[in-house]
Design goal:
Structural class: alpha+beta
Order of helices and strands: HEEHEHEHE
Strand content: 15-25%
Strand order of the largest sheet: 1-2-5-3-4
Largest sheet: 5 strands, mixed
Number of strands: 5
Shape: globular
Distance between the termini: 11 Å
Low-confidence stretches: none
Oligomer: single chain
Helix content: 25-40%
Length: 154
């Protein structure tokens, strides 16, 4: 029963991305262990901030219904660019990346996702998708990855 619910949710998630506004900003990778959704919005977070931008809120709202359908655990992973933290609210990119993940978790729980399903993780600047050599690439590295753990096959 849970496996069928998971398969249906995965299909809806993929369709939402492939046929919606997020086609150029999100991609899904699936294997037998997990479903990984990477959101590469032009600006998910401003430099040094864990506050979700308006465009990122819109993207998350688009993905809310498919994500809600999963009965599985969901790991929210925050990432930063390589700009060093110099003062401010977060002492390091590690703390900033975790705060970004928690911001997304707060959004999801406010929208009714079961808190028992959610896990926060932060990678700081240590897993960039792009070289941090332009403002555009740095913005893409300030991202969220949502990993949905799959049910084991019987």
């Amino acid at each position: 029963m849970e496996q069928q619910k998971e398969k249906n949710a995965a299909r809806v998630l993929r369709d939402t991305i492939e046929h919606g506004r997020l086609k150029q900003y999100a991609h899904v990778e699936m294997d037998e262990k997990e479903i990984k959704l990477t959101l590469e919005l032009p600006v998910f977070f401003e430099t040094g901030s864990a506050e979700i931008t308006d465009s990122a809120y819109n993207a998350l709202n688009t993905l809310l219904l498919p994500i809600k359908e999963f009965p599985n655990d969901i790991i929210i992973e925050g990432h930063t660019d390589n700009v060093p933290i110099l003062g401010g609210k977060y002492p390091s990119n590690w703390e900033l990346s975790v705060a970004r993940a928690v911001s997304v978790i707060d959004f999801l729980t406010d929208k009714g996702i079961n808190t028992k399903q959610l896990v926060a993780g932060g990678y700081g600047e240590f897993h960039p998708l792009y070289a941090n050599d332009t403002d555009e690439n740095k913005a893409k590295n300030r991202r969220i990855e949502i990993t949905i753990l799959r049910q084991a096959e019987d």
